Amino acid sequence: MSVWRGDAPAGWDAFVRGVVGGSVFHSEAWGGAIASAFGHKTVYVTALRAGEIVAGVPLCVVRSLLGGTMVVSMPYGVYGGVLGEDEAAVELVYREARAFAQSVDARVLDFRSEIARFGDAMTSDRYVTFRRALPDDPAACLGMLPRKARAAARAAREKYRLDVSDDDGHLPDVWRLYCRNMSRLASLSYPFRFFEELIARTPGEHLVSLVSFEGRPVAGLVTFLFEGTAMPYFVGADERFKHVSAYNLIYLAAMERAVKLGYRSFDFGRSRRDNSGSCAFKRNQGFEATALAYQTVTFAGRRAANLSPSNPRFALARRVWPRLPMALTCPLSGWLSRHIPG
Fold first, then answer.
1. Diameter of the chain by CA atoms?
2. 33 is in which domain, residue-wise?
3. What is the pLDDT of residues 203-233, one digit of tens each?
4. Residue ranges, the chain, pLDDT below 70
5. Three-state SS string across 188-199, please?
6. Do the domain assignments include residue 333?
7. Is 293 exposed, middle or buried (0-12, 13-18, 19+ CB in 10 A)?
8. What is the DSSP letter of 9?
9. DSSP string of 105-151?
10. CB contact set of 36 (below 8 Å; sequence gap of 6+)
């Protein structure tokens, strides 16, 4: 068995699609979009047996003015970490990943893993994810929703006559709604370039959805479609139209569309345990939380920076942020997000 470290080897995406735990965040598309939009370098570490990939991990080098050098698998995503079912190969890749992180003088090596695999890495229970099987019939998606969510989605469609359409041309409107939402929540929004790159690199494996009310865009959503799973990821809405329940409808429409396309699982993505609003909304859509086991290696003599939004040091900035004009927060978010690999 040999180990490879460098650009994505031939067959990487096929390996990701065929292995347990493989996700869009492990794909070349995600790493390439990060490199183009943020300037971070992605390095792939793989174990090969008889020329075939049997384990591997994508690693992104983030040189942050706020957190020092970090090696992350993968930034701006939900999942990451070492893939593989051969434990000896997984261990080999892990050791090589540690060596690589030390070679670039990283403070930490961060795996956004679903399960804890390495005994000498610290495991965090800060995040949970929400997943559920989809029905065979799109018409059955409405019935999946709990009573209140079902009533809200039905009112959005029947009372307020909201229109939902899927088209890549909606991307600028969706991004603006997303930025508006993130600003209101005192969170960083990612630059439009990242959205453009991801859409360009995932042809046929995404939905760009827009909800309109009386001809006006009121909610938008980017959903990634990967190996049987639909994952709504970037979302935003105009809070001035909260009463029309656009959020409820846009997620229902994404489920219905995914079923029509043959997808059988819906992944609502992660939420921080302390983000009660996000967790409550997903539970109110009929989804239950599953703990994620992110793992971090902090190297000797180093200290990991706390870049979490819940860090008390960011409290004042979070109070001020929603009051600033979007003409300021959008470009500033783009710069800050390069240094905070959310």
1. 62
2. 2-128+293-304
3. 999 999 999 999 999 999 999 999 999 999 9
4. none
5. CCCCHHHHHHHH
6. no
7. middle
8. P
9. T-SEEEE--SS---TTSEEE--EEEEEEEPPSSGGGHHHHS-HHHHH
10. 193, 197
316 burial class (0-12, 13-18, 19+ CB within 10 angstroms)?
exposed
Give the number of other Cβ atoms within 10 Å of residue 125's Cβ: 11
Domains held by the chain: number: 2
Examine the domain organization and report whether 244 and 149 are in the same domain.
Answer: yes
C-alpha 317/C-alpha 333 separation (Å) is 12
Same domain, 97 and 22: yes
Q: In whole angstroms, what is the distance from residue 219 CA to residue 241 CA?
A: 9
Q: Distance (Å, rounded) from C-alpha 169 to C-alpha 165?
A: 10
Whether the CA torsion 276, 279, 282, 286 is positive or negative: it is: negative
DSSP state letters, 190-252: --HHHHHHHHHHSTTSEEEEEEEETTEEEEEEEEEEETTEEEEEEEEE-GGGGGG-HHHHHHH
CATH number, domain containing residue 89: 3.40.630.30
Nearest of 188, 211, 207 to residue 76 by alpha carbon: 188
Query: 142 and 101: one domain?
Result: no
Using CA atoms, how far residue 253 sits from 9, 25, 173, in Å, is: 37, 23, 18
Those residues whose C-beta lies under 8 Å from the C-beta of residue 178, and which sit 6 or more positions away, are 189, 220, 234, 235, 236
CA 231 to centroid of chain Cα atoms: 8
Q: What are phi and psi of 134, to 5 degrees?
A: -95, 155
On whether both 121 and 182 belong to a single domain, the answer is: no
Give the tens place of pLDDT for each residue, 42-51. Answer: 999 999 999 8
Query: Do 90 and 141 belong to one domain?
Result: no
Helices (H) and strands (E) in the chain — how many of each?
11, 15
DSSP 8-class letter at 81: S
Answer whether residue 195 is part of any domain: yes
- Are residues 35 and 112 located together in one domain of the fold? yes
